[in-house]
């Protein structure tokens, strides 16, 4: 790995992560992500350029607003740093090329979607549509046929649509969000039909583990409690995007030996 390129990609990632913070905060409350200057969530004061340096500005102010001294969540610089890590990881795994760009697109969509769903119990269709468009363009330019791309999307959408219908039938109400169906369809556009099946199955195991951990920590979770499922899909898709090919090869080895 070229260390200089690695540093550059981390910096790019941190900058994009700063923008992702804006998207995550504003989209669910119907604020424009381009027409309004950044402001303090507590006092609504417009921020100056010195307040907008990714990671550094907030940490230098000890997670406090410069103007009202209200506390600002530490997760903002954490998301910026994590996005920088994702950009670096993509470069380390795939080098400079279409595979790197595809991974950055997918992982960015997963990050934004997971945090919004965790905060607001909603999956933003606009985020899925935008990143799905980028995915399709990237995969076509990389030489994959549109038919193969759409097959992955249909597989993800179809699998979760069945779960959505069955859950509604069993519980007599919407027990599984349709946004999750759309999210899995978008994931399928990237992963392809085979890895999409792996991600779909894995998401339920991750959900079971997460619920078990919360119960072990003493949290009471009742059957009627709503739990955002989007983050589990996003984690499963992220893991599958890296290790999915290995899993498929392992399964084929078991079958044909």
Tag the structure with descriptive keywords:
257 residues; mainly alpha; 9 helices
Structure description:
- This protein has two domains: 1-96, no CATH class; 123-257, no CATH class.
- It has nine helices and no strands.
- The chain is mostly helical and 257 residues long.
- The protein has helices at 3-26, 56-60, 75-94, 98-120, 125-141, 146-171, 178-191, 193-216, 230-256.
- The model has no long low-confidence stretch (mean pLDDT 88).
Number of strands: 0
Radius of gyration: 20 Å
Query: Topology as H/E string?
Result: HHHHHHHHH
Measured by DSSP, the beta-strand proportion falls in: under 5%
What's the structural domain tally? 2
Structural class: mainly alpha
Number of helices: 9
N- to C-terminal distance? 36 Å
Helical residue percent?
over 70%
Mean of residue pLDDT values: 88
| Major β-sheet profile | none
- pLDDT < 50 stretches: none
Shape verdict: globular
């Amino acid at each position: 790995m070229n260390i200089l390129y690695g540093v550059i990609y981390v910096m790019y990632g941190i900058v994009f992560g700063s923008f992702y913070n804006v998207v995550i905060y504003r989209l669910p409350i119907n604020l424009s992500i381009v027409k309004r200057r950044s402001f303090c969530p507590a006092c609504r004061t417009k921020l100056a350029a010195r307040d907008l340096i990714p990671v550094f500005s907030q940490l230098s102010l000890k997670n406090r607003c410069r103007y009202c001294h209200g506390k600002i969540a530490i997760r903002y610089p954490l998301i910026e740093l994590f996005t920088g890590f994702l950009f670096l990881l993509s470069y380390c795994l795939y080098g400079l090329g279409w595979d790197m760009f595809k991974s950055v697109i997918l992982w960015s969509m997963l990050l934004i979607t997971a945090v919004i769903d965790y905060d607001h119990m909603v999956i933003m269709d606009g985020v899925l549509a935008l990143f799905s468009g980028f995915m399709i363009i990237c995969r076509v330019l990389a030489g994959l046929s549109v038919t193969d791309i759409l097959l992955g999307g249909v597989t993800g959408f179809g699998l979760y649509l069945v779960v959505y219908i069955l859950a509604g039938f069993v519980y007599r109400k919407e027990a599984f969000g349709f946004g999750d169906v759309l999210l899995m369809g978008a994931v399928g556009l990237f992963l392809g039909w085979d890895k999409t099946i792996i991600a779909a199955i894995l998401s339920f195991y991750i959900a079971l583990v997460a619920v078990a951990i919360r119960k072990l920590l003493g949290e009471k979770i009742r059957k009627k409690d709503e739990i955002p499922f989007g983050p589990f899909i996003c984690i499963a898709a992220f893991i599958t995007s890296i290790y999915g090919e290995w899993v498929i090869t392992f399964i084929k080895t078991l079958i044909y030996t």
